[in-house]
Amino acid sequence: MSTYAVVGKGVPRVDGKAQVTGRAIYCGDLFMNGMLHGKILRSPHSHARIRGIDTSRARKLSGVRAIVTGADTLGAKYGPMVSDEPALAVDKVRYVGDEVAAVAADTIEIAEQALELIDVDYEILPAVFDPFKAMAEDAPQIHDHVKNNIAFGKLFQWGRPVEDLTDACDVILEDNFTTHSQIHAYLEPNCALATWGPGDHVTLWASTQGPYYLKQDLVKTLGIPEHKLRIIKPALGGGFGGKRDLVEPGFCAILLSKMTGRPVRLAYTREEEFTVTRHRHAMNLRLKVGAKKDGALIFFDCTNITDNGAFNSRGPVIVMAAGQSLASIYRLQGVRYDVKLVYTNTAAGGAFRGFGNLQIRFGLESMLDMIAEKRGMDPVELRLKNAIQTGYNTLDKKQIISCGLS
């Protein structure tokens, strides 16, 4: 038998000792001489047009070193799937907490005082918070280029058409399921420290899960040549998907450092983490399941109306992955999945461990419990009877080369 250095042996994490002894360095632990502190001004309105921003009073406050608004940016939008989100609002705000301006000051307290002195002239617009109402013809239009606020919509069909399979079923159950948004609540808030150095070389320390994704978005939104931007990822105090996207501390810290010529650190408060960061998407599911009297599953039929929030983030791929999970675990003859991802005037949903699977699993596994109860079967027996097996090809073309269920 071969002897392996790692396989079959207990190998300590390379960063484990530093973390449990408190020696790990996180972004919030970093300090540089001359460092300024940043804060972000956020919209108090769910939907409003920005008619003007007056920063003159804030600039006169002693200790304020720079203020940046959307007018100071390129206005470029970013997003991992669809570029629909400005790093700072330019024309209007789309949810309570949307980023309007950022301040760099000698202390956090001075930066917070400066935010109160910035005057924003808002034209308040009608807002919509329910994805069903957002699809109505007379609903407020959150993005000008999107009709009926439907950011993404598609009908997926795997295997045989569901309508052709209903006669083969002895039992068909149908029900509605609703899941709510959920916050990651990682221990370390989002944080970034930036220096704009000689020759326009930029270094950013950021609490990010995806430094390469972050670099792509910063290059696009700031117009920085890729070779002049270096991103350093210190120890990460949790992420779970919530730190995959560009978040405004990094963007604003870089611009403020450029304006001041000094390092700028910007960290979210716990309140900001709960109100403006990415969260798990809330989904509204209509599920129909068809089965034989012996418990053999025939089809799944699902309609999913998902609350996208104000921006896309990874919403399209998340709802697609959610649908594919319907066809991935059980042996079936057909699956239909009709999904609409809908803009609303709430904070954007995004990546969250499970990537759409958990919402679907909640509804589907509840339905299987109901099928088992109706057929007088043990719920575990029902699942094992229908579980995929090694060598099985799922309806969505996945090849199962190994399976612990079989």
Low-pLDDT sequence parts: none
Work out the strand percent: 25-35%
Assembly classification: single chain
User: What is the mean predicted local confidence, pLDDT?
Assistant: 96
Main sheet attributes: strand count, strand direction, barrel closure: 7 strands, mixed
Shape: globular
The topology string of helices and strands comes to: HEEHEEEEEHEHEEEEHEHEHEEHEHH
Alpha-beta classification? alpha+beta
The total strand number stands at 17
Instruction: Write down the Rg.
Output: 25 Å
- Helical coverage, percent range: 10-25%
User: Order of strands in the sheet with the most strands?
Assistant: 3-7-1-14-11-12-13
Q: Give the end-to-end Cα distance, rounded to a whole number of Å.
A: 27 Å
| Number of H- or I-type helical stretches | 10
